[in-house]
Design a protein that fits this description.
By secondary structure, this protein is α+β, with helices and mostly antiparallel strands. The protein is built from seven helices and 15 strands.
């Protein structure tokens, strides 16, 4: 999987190799999936409006079915405003600006360049194809919001309570973060491996490629630190069909980096959007003088709701890759 483009380029895109042939791409379903991530559709997201229409430029036949060749997608950027981001010599707190400058000696491009969350649409488009193949095999991937700032919840929809929590931060020129839980059902046992071959390693690395993810937990996660071993362990039992399952699922479907056959459960923690109009301290990299920075432009007061399909897409890409490897053994 590779991504291309930047926040204010003419387009963004991505390429996926190794995708099996014979996967039918439902364009209506793809459009609906992309709409969940698209900006500018409500009061609690960035006002930047992008239709995020996906053009699949390679890898499909005339019937819309994957050929087994590399799959390429392209999405136009139609609503860029680079003039909103002129103070590149003053690094934005919470962004990659300063680290990138130290590494390369160059100031980051407008809108965050290659570090922008704007590169997640092609990730979603390619992940949708993986989701389609997994679903055909009886494997379902679904994400839900479990926390927005201090509000605990359990929903895939934006409730009035969630909207109120986000809008309260927006009114203060501030932002909030939250948590997303993703669940994968229908997985066979035996996928993965120990140490560096663990499925949790593959998923964790992919999850941290999503902008703003700061922590990843599997199963009980950090709650396991306050449990006894007798509480954290999941007893094995036989279900009504005679299959070995566990009474609980603190292990989150992974034992030793290998799927157990129970639902795979991961929780991702997202930081608050760093681009805020609230005054912040920074340093002018040209003059080496202290400055106060107020970030202008169009930004989400909370990215968590729009990250739901991104998390599902990334999960599906890793799971399909692991499943294909498992089937080839």
């Amino acid at each position: 999987l590779s991504l291309e483009g930047k926040s204010h380029d003419s387009h963004i895109g991505g390429t996926l190799t190794g995708i099996p042939r014979g996967i039918a791409v439902d364009y209506d379903a793809l459009k609906a999936f992309m709409a969940r991530r698209a900006p500018g559709n409500n009061a609690w997201s960035t006002p930047r409006k992008e239709s995020d229409e996906v053009e699949i430029t390679r890898g499909l036949d005339e019937c819309g079915i994957t050929t087994g060749m590399a799959l390429e997608v392209r999405i136009a950027n139609t609503n860029t405003r680079p003039h909103d981001y002129e103070a590149h010599n003053v690094p934005r707190p919470g962004h990659a600006d300063f680290a990138y400058f130290v590494q390369t000696g160059h100031q980051i491009e407008s809108g965050g360049g290659a570090f922008s969350g704007r590169l997640t649409p092609p990730l979603c488009a390619l992940g949708f194809v993986a989701l389609s193949e997994l679903k055909k095999q009886g494997i379902e991937v679904g994400a839900q919001i479990t926390q927005i700032h201090n509000l605990e919840c359990d929903t895939a929809e934006i409730t009035p309570e969630i909207e109120a929590e986000i809008m309260a931060a927006k009114r203060m020129d501030d932002s909030v973060g939250g948590k997303i839980r993703v669940t994968v059902t229908g997985l066979p046992a035996g996928i993965g491996g120990p140490y560096f071959d663990g499925l949790d390693c593959a998923l964790g690395g992919a999850y941290f490629s999503i902008p703003a993810v700061k922590a990843v937990e599997f199963g009980a996660g950090v709650r396991a630190t306050s449990m006894l071993g007798s509480e954290n362990n999941d007893p094995f039992v036989l279900n009504d069909g005679g299959r070995v399952v566990t009474e609980s699922n603190n292990h989150g479907g992974l034992l030793g980096g290998i799927t157990s056959g129970m639902p795979l459960v991961a929780t991702l923690s997202f930081k608050p959007t760093p681009s805020i109009a609230h005054p912040q301290k920074s340093v002018n990299l040209d003059t080496h003088e202290q400055e106060t920075l107020e970030i202008h432009g169009r930004h989400d007061p909370c990215i968590v709701p729009r990250a739901l399909p991104v998390v599902e897409a990334v999960t599906a890409l890793v799971m399909l890759d692991a499943l294909l490897t498992y089937e080839q053994r």
